[in-house]
Design goal:
Length: 694
């Protein structure tokens, strides 16, 4: 029988439709799936989830652990190994297990595709093979920029990829938001205060003296502990670009305690999406403690290249060690600096790096929370505006301050969790585009050890066309040193006044005519040497950086409201009791603390005072005032006249106050107080002696 063509066509059509329907039903429909360009369907998962699935398919078998698939949307959890050779200290809450027969502890649950990272870096690694001892090809430090505006040039340089700004979608969970962490019942979990009994008192005191923290408690808390989410609830609804640039995290340390540094490292790995974390660079600034030697080398082997160790051949100090870290951190587009005793918060990374991705001349700073150095509770810093937001500031002696965010800044934004401008940063924790940092010249190479570098980089960024933004939705906890810490000795041949020298370099380069207010607050250092700044001045001129006056009027407009410009000094120096070896001394007190007297040391500091043309007697931003017969210190405020009224009678050598009394002292009790003026009283005789800061 001869088949008609029309019959064949109709039959083929019916069969084709039948098999198409069968294929549709067997394939199934996923309401969360999306179509890719290649016609492949996949779930619309968060970016880190998609990356994890891809890694599992391609590199299964070269992992430190095979993930638990029971909870597809759970962020990777890092179970942390104990110290090498140590036993669990809390048997009720064992934190981890040792791998039998292994010299290096096993990390169970490290969700980092180390093979994929290595494979993806082959081209970059080959490019760096011949680079030795930090001589690798770097962006030219402080390279001159042509054209009238450094900002425009810098924004364009190396920024071929366009990133989308963050978008607020109220009620729709952010695209980078992780699942909430489950909080186990173990010491310090959920950042709940962990308190030890009185039997540990002596050991705790020793650890505080050596390290500045309660290391006895720290060593009993998991390096991978969970923490509470103390972000503003609004932060959960920010949506960031799905392909943000990656980052190198740089951590400088010197003779720190093991557990606080390692907890910093582990928190970064645990709470950072893998595709955003290019590397962690540990810079050991020539530590001498035994646990930072071979033990560290052995420990980081488990990270298979994710954690890089740089050992300085001599003590460089924090500032220059950070510049070394920038040169060694070659994998990330963005550099993130962390102090060595921190814990990053929930979803900290996207909020911190998104503004930089959009504008490479932006430097971002997280909100810095407090980790209690005694019990490791985490809470927000006090002060700030109604949302707890503060701006970085300084007084005229260049001491770091925090002041509430202003209505002027809030008016610039629709949402109170948007990044906002700050005149300065504290300096320990910040993020910056790597290439841009090199264009700025990194830190001033003449700055030594610690002090002033936070202001130097802040002024340089602002005055040369960039901006410093505080990011409310990126929060990082920081342990502040406890009273009783013995401190770290400065490097050899550093001198005693490196901090003051640093301050002088900063104001001489960036403050213009405002530097006179600095010297009014610190008259003892006006003639102090501060080294050669010609290259820094040339950088500023070459890049057409703006004046400090512009900066004070446009960006730091609120500084003078909190820290009035100091009047000129009439007389200054140590105030010594005549015919005695005792000097007026603030005793380190401020904001309501009482004055005293102590043995004269001739080094300024707590014994340096100035009497200015407003008849205020002050030390830095603290004015001496009288309460009854008591002599106290308080923050200087031009709105109050209670600080005024001091006069020094040079002929009679008496310090008189407008209330009709004179400054008196008890050399036995080392106290000062106000008494009826008596020209015959030896304890009311004083003299000002100018001293040079050492």
């Amino acid at each position: 029988m001869r088949l008609r063509p029309s019959f064949v066509i109709r039959s083929a059509t019916v069969v084709g439709v039948f098999f198409f329907v069968v294929w549709i039903f067997t394939r199934g429909i996923d309401e969360n799936a999306v179509e890719t360009k290649g016609g492949e369907r996949r779930r619309n998962n968060p970016p880190w989830q998609e990356r994890r699935d891809e890694w599992e398919k391609q590199f299964q078998g070269d992992r430190l652990f095979v993930p638990n698939r029971e909870k597809d949307n759970q962020m990777p959890q890092l179970k942390v190994p104990n110290f090498i050779g140590e036993e669990d200290e809390d048997e009720e809450h064992p934190r981890h297990e040792h791998v039998k027969g292994a010299g290096i502890p096993h990390v169970d649950g490290l969700e980092v595709d180390l093979k994929a990272v290595r494979e993806g870096r082959k081209k970059e690694d080959s490019r760096h093979e011949e680079e030795k001892d930090g001589d690798a090809k770097q962006p030219q430090v402080g390279a001159p920029r042509r054209g009238p505006e450094i900002a425009e040039n810098m924004r364009r340089s190396g920024n071929n990829v366009k990133y989308r700004p963050a978008v607020m979608k109220p009620g729709e969970l952010g695209n980078w938001e992780p699942e909430p962490e489950k909080i186990p019942d173990a010491p310090g979990e959920g950042s709940i205060p962990f308190k030890l009994g009185p039997e540990y008192k002596e050991d705790i005191a020793k650890s505080i003296k050596e390290f500045g923290f309660n290391i006895v408690a720290s060593d009993k808390i998991s390096l991978d502990r969970t923490i509470k989410d103390i972000r503003d609830p609004e932060c959960k609804y920010w949506h960031y670009d799905t392909k943000l640039p990656n980052m190198s995290v740089i951590i400088v340390f010197y003779n720190e305690a093991w557990s606080v540094v390692m907890r910093t490292v582990h928190s970064v790995i645990k709470r950072t999406p893998p595709e955003l974390l290019a590397e962690i660079v540990l810079v050991d600034d020539f530590s001498t403690k035994e646990h930072w030697k071979q033990k560290l080398d052995d420990y980081i082997v488990q990270f298979k290249g994710l954690v890089k160790l740089v050992r300085n051949k001599q003590r460089e100090g924090l500032i220059q060690a950070r510049s070394i870290g920038a040169r060694e951190a070659k994998r990330g587009k963005i550099l993130v600096y962390l102090d060595s005793h921190c814990e990053v918060g929930i979803n900290w990374a996207p909020a911190l790096i998104s503004p930089i991705a959009v504008n490479r001349t932006t430097c971002t700073v997280p909100l810095i929370d407090v980790i209690d150095g005694n019990n490791y509770n985490i809470y927000g810093q006090g002060g700030g505006d109604e949302y707890g937001h503060a701006r970085g500031a300084w007084d005229w002696s260049l001491l770091w301050k925090r002041v509430p965010n202003t209505a002027r800044e809030r008016a610039r934004h629709k949402y109170h969790t948007e990044p906002y401008r700050s005149p300065a940063m504290a300096g320990g924790l910040f993020a910056i585009d790597r290439e841009y940092f090199f264009e700025l010249g990194l830190y001033d190479p003449g700055l030594k050890i610690w002090g002033g570098e936070n202001f130097e980089i802040s002024y340089k960024i602002w005055q040369c066309g960039g901006e410093v933004l505080f990011t409310p939705c990126s929060r990082i906890g920081h342990i502040y040193r406890l009273e009783g810490w013995a401190g770290n000795p400065p490097p050899a041949n550093s001198g005693l006044s490196v901090v003051l020298q640093n301050y002088m370099r900063v104001v001489e380069v960036w403050w213009d005519e405002y530097k006179e207010y600095f010297y009014a607050s610190r008259p003892e250092i006006r003639n102090h040497p501060y080294g050669d700044i010609s290259e820094l001045v040339a950088f500023r001129e070459r890049n057409h950086c703006k004046s400090f006056k512009w900066f004070m009027e446009e960006i730091a407009y609120d500084i003078v409201e909190h820290f009035p410009l100091p009047p000129k000094n009439k007389i200054w120096g140590e105030i010594r009791g005549t015919d005695s070896g005792l000097c007026l001394d603030s005793m380190g007190h401020k904001d309501g603390g009482e004055m005293g007297i102590g043995g004269c040391h001739g080094m300024g500091g707590n014994q340096m005072f100035r009497l200015n043309e407003a008849n205020e007697m002050a030390q830095y931003d603290q004015c001496i005032h009288v309460v009854g017969t008591l002599v106290k210190l308080d923050h200087c405020d031009t709105g109050h006249t209670k600080y005024r009224g001091w006069e020094f009678d040079e002929e009679k050598k008496m310090l008189r106050h407008k209330i009709g009394k004179c400054l008196d002292r008890s050399e036995i009790l080392h106290q000062v107080f106000m008494s009826d003026c008596d020209e015959s009283s030896k304890t009311q005789k004083w003299e000002f002696n100018q001293v040079m800061a050492m």
